[in-house]
Amino acid sequence: MNFLISAGGQLFVLRRPPEGPIPPGANDMAREFRILSHLHPVFPLVPRAHLFCSDPQVIGAPFQLMEYRPGLVVGAKITSDTISNWNRPEPIGQHLGGEVIRVLNSLHQVDVRACGLEDLGRPAGFLTRTLRGWSKRAALSWKDSPNTLLPALLDWLQTNLPPETDGATLIHNDFKLDNIILDPATLRPRTLIDWDMGTLGDPLYDLAVLLSYWPESGDPAVMHALRQMPTAGHGFASRAEAADLYVALSGRDLGNFVFFRVLATLRIAVVFQQLYQRNCLTENKDPRAAGFNQLALDLLAFGMQIARGRYF
């Protein structure tokens, strides 16, 4: 949860976890404050961290204060004003998609030793640990409503787990368009936010997470129902083209990328199932979350289609 506050004549963002139970590893304000504090001097696209308070008695949860950078956030749709004000020759989606991939590549080039984040995570065994973690969360999320899709997807992932590499970088762990605040006039990135799950790991996982939010016009309905990014139109690149741009910029090999894509799709399916369960337990229910359980199942099915090569 983010709040704009004023102190000493200056605006800040106060950031704290949401109300209710928090999934393991999510909304870690101490972790985010450490990342921002160390990363800002070498990667100024991230906001400056000002203060962290671990005492939940102050406002009911740990919180931090960070630099406020105003700008435009593009989510599921691009506003008509933004489209009408776009006056460059390339399609607006081509520009935005390229900027997103360039920011991701720049992030993965950060020297973690130079900024004191070399001990942020445990890169050895990252893929094995990530698969195990999301498998456990999936089992808990569907323990009261078993289905045949989840065991099939988990079995495929376990069978196709690639060997670990030594190319770990700093990764965002939830990298997507609406975590980049844009200059409203130029649509160039002003800041990259939401660092509470940042860690050291395989950069291809970051790319796969981004593409798990990236619908195309010919995708099944579930990818459009996500309502996360407007990439099905406006001249955005396809997922394969976006991955090719990342390869061209980074020089990395996508050899086992299907595994990463399937794992990232499992991840987002679990997230939506967790949101559905959380909504069921809250007093003030969000009607938008009522169908998230079916959305999560449809994502599991889409994950199997990716595994079988039907979609990139």
UniProtKB/TrEMBL annotation:
InterPro entries reported for this sequence: ACAD10-like (IPR052898), ACAD10_11_N (IPR041726), Aminoglycoside_PTrfase (IPR002575), Kinase-like_dom_sf (IPR011009)
SUPFAM superfamilies, per database record: Protein kinase-like (PK-like) (SSF56112)
Pfam annotation, one family: APH
Keywords: Transferase
Molecular-function GO term, any one: transferase activity
Gene3D superfamilies: 3.90.1200.10, Phosphorylase Kinase, domain 1
Domain Aminoglycoside phosphotransferase: 3-231
Cleavable signal peptide: none
UniProt cross-references to CDD domains, sorted A to Z: ACAD10_11_N-like
UniProt KW Kinase keyword: no
Name assigned to this protein: Phosphotransferase family protein
Highest classification ranks of the organism: Bacteria, Pseudomonadati, Pseudomonadota, Alphaproteobacteria, Rhodobacterales
